[in-house]
Design brief:
alpha+beta, 5 helices
Length: 119
């Protein structure tokens, strides 16, 4: 069994491949290891419509299960505006573009650490 960073990196590759396969748009991957206890990576993507957001999410959930990572927590699948898929190591946010713009998660998480700004 892989552990730690290796497992997270392998899971990230799987997530990104699944999202590409589903034609997810504007895929952004953010390394949050050491910045948050939530996980190692955050992935933010867009789908063109509620139906596309749901399809991207369902495809990713299926791919995770196929790879033995089926214990992901999922929220928002019913509405298709914003679906959160939390694998433990990776948090995936699948948005409709308008909703993504409102929350702008990647900008919040991509800000430099305070210590980085002081040097």
């Amino acid at each position: 069994m892989e552990r730690g960073a290796d497992a997270a990196a392998r899971a990230l590759e799987l997530v990104l491949a699944s999202l590409e396969d589903s034609k997810a748009e504007d895929i952004v991957s953010i390394d949050i290891a050491g910045k948050s206890a939530l996980g190692d990576y955050m992935v933010v993507v867009s789908g063109r419509s509620n139906r596309h957001v749901s399809a991207i999410s369902e495809h990713l959930i299926s791919d995770l299960k196929d790879e033995g990572l089926g214990s992901a927590r999922v929220e928002g699948l019913e509405n298709g505006d914003w679906v959160l898929i939390d694998t433990g190591d990776i948090i995936v946010h699948v948005f409709r573009p308008e909703i993504r713009e409102v929350y702008n998660l990647e900008r919040m998480w991509a800000t430099p650490d305070i210590g980085d700004r002081l040097h």
